[in-house]
Design brief:
The chain has 330 residues and is of the alpha/beta class. It folds into 3 domains: 128 residues, 3-Layer(aba) Sandwich (Rossmann fold); 38 residues, no CATH class; 121 residues, no CATH class. Helices cover 30% and strands 13% of the residues. A 5-stranded parallel beta sheet has the order 2-1-3-5-9. The protein has a two-stranded antiparallel sheet with strand order 4-8. A two-stranded antiparallel sheet has the order 6-7.
Length: 330
């Protein structure tokens, strides 16, 4: 009997939704098992890291690596699984772009620790005790993974073959990738984004699109949007114009703006910058008569200042992979 190719999945710094997305391929999990030996997944299987270390290099055919690199343990596992895997896939937005955990890059490690362990109404820590990599206890020495200065994407640490976007990836897209491998068809060029499209969510969205000119930006709770009109044209920040297609425009279909979880479209370097540029072109100040440049600037600033958290809005999923990446301490 021919040995089935091995497949693995690892969970780094993320929420765990990617594992659920894989299970959500439902009965196709039987086909996955029929074609692969699912041999390493810490949240599902009892395979040890030592078992992986003993494998020959590239013995694992595919590894789905989800989560950003925030600790030394994450980094160690990234290097190990890169070495042991023929194909390493950055699976989901955290591994691909950093996602929501990467918003912590807007703060220093010390600021994060102070918020979590000392300057916090729910914490009783009068001695201001902070985690350290090694602690002596009567039973011996306890070691925990070292917390890195910033979260990195998987490709910023090791060489990555492919990227599957999404928070989490859509189950149908996951299966499309697995089916492609099972069929023996030629895989895309290394470094490609797979399990998604190349254009923007607007291509998949069937809302009516007309001239985009807005005078005011609304937060989601402030209005009930029309169900057929483009959400951006109604003053809601819909990131669809700056987000890769492939999800099926699920959020706009239920009257909610796209938040950008599939990352930038093909050819776009910085998702947040793309969205800011789009907004700059649609704020309606050119029709305001009798205003000089200073007044027009004030009007633009009024609209922009109505966005309470620009970084969290425009870079919710892509900060670590953007031009900005992180806060720099001077």
């Amino acid at each position: 009997m021919t040995e089935k190719p091995k497949i693995s999945m690892y969970w780094a710094s993320s929420c765990g939704g990617c594992e659920i997305a894989l299970v959500n391929i439902n009965e196709k999990i039987i086909d996955l098992d029929a074609n692969f030996d699912f041999m390493f997944c810490p949240c599902l299987l009892d395979t040890k890291k030592s078992d992986v270390k003993e494998l020959p290099d590239e013995d694992i055919f595919i590894t789905f690596f989800n989560g950003g690199i925030r600790t030394k343990e994450n980094e160690e596992m990234a290097h190990l699984l890169r070495k042991k895997s023929k194909i390493l896939i950055a699976f989901g937005s955290c591994a691909y772009e950093g996602c929501i955990p990467a918003l912590a890059n807007l703060f220093s490690k010390n600021e994060l620790f102070n918020t979590v362990y000392t300057d916090n109404f729910t914490i009783d820590n009068p001695l201001n005790v902070l985690p350290v990599p090694k602690s002596a206890v009567p039973e011996g020495e306890i070691e925990i993974p070292q917390f890195c200065d910033a979260l990195k994407t998987l490709s910023q640490v090791v060489d990555v073959d492919y990227f599957i976007p999404g928070c989490p990836p859509e189950s149908k897209q996951i299966w499309n990738v697995i089916e492609l491998v099972i069929s023996g068809a030629s895989l895309p060029a290394k470094g490609s984004v797979i399990g998604a499209g190349a254009s923007s969510v607007c291509v998949e969205c069937d809302r009516k699109k007309e001239e985009k000119k807005i005078k005011k930006i609304y937060r989601n709770y402030e209005i009930i949007p029309e169900k057929e009109k483009c959400l951006l044209e109604q003053g809601l920040i819909c990131m669809g114009i700056a987000t890769r297609d492939g999800c099926g425009a699920l959020c706009p279909k239920v009257n909610m703006p796209c938040t950008g979880c599939y990352g930038p479209p093909e050819g776009v370097l910085d998702q947040g910058a793309k969205m800011v540029s789009a907004l700059g072109s649609i704020i309606n100040v050119d029709r305001i008569k009798g205003l000089d440049d200073e007044k027009i600037t004030e009007k633009i600033n009024e609209v922009i200042e109505s966005i309470p958290d620009p970084a969290g809005l425009f870079y919710k999923y892509s900060l670590a992979d953007s031009i900005l990446r992180r806060k720099v301490n001077i």
